[in-house]
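Reviewer comment 2.1 asked that we show a complete input and output for one of the modelled complexes. We chose the guanosine-5'-diphosphate case, as it is the one discussed in the main text.
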Amino acid sequence: MSRTTSFKLVLLGESAVGKSSLVLRFVRNEFSDFRESTIAAFLTQTVTLDESTSIKFEIWDTAGQERYKSLAPIYFRNSNAAVIVYDITQPPETSFEKAKSWVRELQRQADPSIVIMLVGNKTDLESQRKTPRELGERFAEEEGLLFSEASAKSGESVEELFMEIAKKLPLAP
Ligand code: GDP
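Response of the prediction step:
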């Protein structure tokens, strides 16, 4: 018999780094070059860990709110996992720095057991890369975070990064 456990996951990061796109790739296997204003703020997706265990992600996207005001801590309180996204085609001073500040914020305010995955998105634009992979890798290692680079556009590593998170989530015996 298979058991499904639900976990709350939040997406964080600067505007336009591809948070909604990563979610849409993961949940619907879709991508759009054009920003949709109607992107849902809440989606779910279930993955299978093994024949007896499934993980249901309840995914909270900021739906652009991060552009207008700072997000209330209530948004990530009670979150079991966070995906913090930056854009590898931007210089590190911009979205990578913002990602680091989100990590600090979670370390201060979120549940200490939260699983944090740092993601450098847009690897399909390798020729325009301005943030080296090593910067993300090193920061994640120092802070004990999961790390991946990915592309919502090509789909590279998207499913895998959510699977990595799923494997780290605490399951009741
Ligand atoms: P959000 O504001 O962080 O949710 O970012 P969006 O998901 O709305 O994406 C912002 C823009 O970047 C859109 O035009 C997307 O099509 C584009 N985008 C997102 N992910 C990728 C990616 O992996 N590769 C490329 N080339 N473009 C992407």
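The CA atoms of residues 13 and 99 lie 6 Å apart. We note this here for comparison with the apo prediction described in Section 3.2.
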